[in-house]
Design a protein that fits this description.
By secondary structure, the protein is α/β, with parallel strands linked by helices. It is globular and about 50 Å long.
Length: 269
């Protein structure tokens, strides 16, 4: 699990340029997570080509829009060209977005079986796991878990299920401003649409004491503040590092808003 660093950067696979990736590497971040469920690993290749040592991971590759055997072949090609630098993050997305969504657990197990058969080692993949069953699967069939949209309380919960030796790398959103109302006005739309309307995310939030009232109408200020860190760089870093204090190995930082993400990340490192 070495080489990922304690802090990384999460961005949509089409939202980060090779030049930005190079600059993020120069800042000292350990991993770039590419979100948005691309249908191939070609976005990861572009980032790997533009950098020299930073790890690159998918956050996530959806099992519904990619064939396991094809992803395994692309993984092998990346491993040949960039040994040890690529981590395959996979997940089942959510039922509201996938017409053929069914038996997500069994479908993920079958996908993992193909990855096993086609040479993707368990310790070179992570699973986007929220609930206990998926977390146990991440423990047993992967390097660990990459949870998305979770408060620090989930990190403590996930660590207990994963055990002490598995990789845990939650994502956390950031609006770097001391104006709380501005931060919430920027962060709330990212949380509300679509996540507060997706049952896997809302069920997970309820697991940690949030209610339907907290989730309704774009989320209460308390919920948004738990999911979107804001404040000075020192205050934001403290909230991010609360995940590390609860058992995470690594935190993937997603910068929100119409800002230069490299400039914002430079303030947090």
């Amino acid at each position: 699990m070495t080489g990922f660093g304690t802090h990384g950067v999460w961005a949509g696979f089409s939202a980060i340029s090779p030049q930005q990736a190079h600059e993020i590497e120069e800042l000292g971040y350990g991993t770039i997570w590419l979100g948005g469920s691309p249908r191939s690993l070609s976005p990861a290749r572009k980032i790997l080509e533009a950098t020299s040592s930073i790890r690159v991971a998918t956050g996530i590759t959806s099992i519904w829009n990619t064939e396991a055997a094809e992803i395994a072949q692309q993984f092998t090609e990346l491993e040949t060209d960039f040994p040890g630098r690529f981590l395959l993050g996979i997940g089942v997305s959510h039922p509201e977005a996938i017409q053929e969504y069914k038996s997500p657990y069994d479908s993920l197990v079958a996908y993992l079986d193909v990855l096993d058969e086609t040479g993707v080692p368990a310790d070179r993949r992570v699973i986007a796991a929220l609930g206990p069953r998926m977390l146990r699967l991440a423990r047993d069939r992967a390097l660990g878990s990459h949870p998305y949209l979770v408060p620090a309380a989930h990190t403590e919960y996930a660590r207990e299920i994963l055990g002490p030796d598995k990789f845990l790398a939650p994502e956390h959103k950031v609006v770097l401003t001391e104006d709380a109302e501005l931060a919430r006005s920027v962060g709330r739309p990212y949380v509300d649409q679509p996540y507060l309307h997706l049952q896997n995310y809302t069920n997970n939030l309820k697991r940690f004491g949030y209610t339907d009232a907290d989730i309704a109408d774009g989320g209460t200020d308390a919920l948004i503040d738990a999911l979107v860190a804001h404040g000075s760089a020192e205050v934001v870093r403290e909230q991010l590092d609360s995940h590390l204090g609860q058992g995470a190995d690594h935190v993937a930082i997603q910068i929100l808003g119409d800002v230069d993400i490299v400039e914002e990340l430079a303030k947090l490192i």
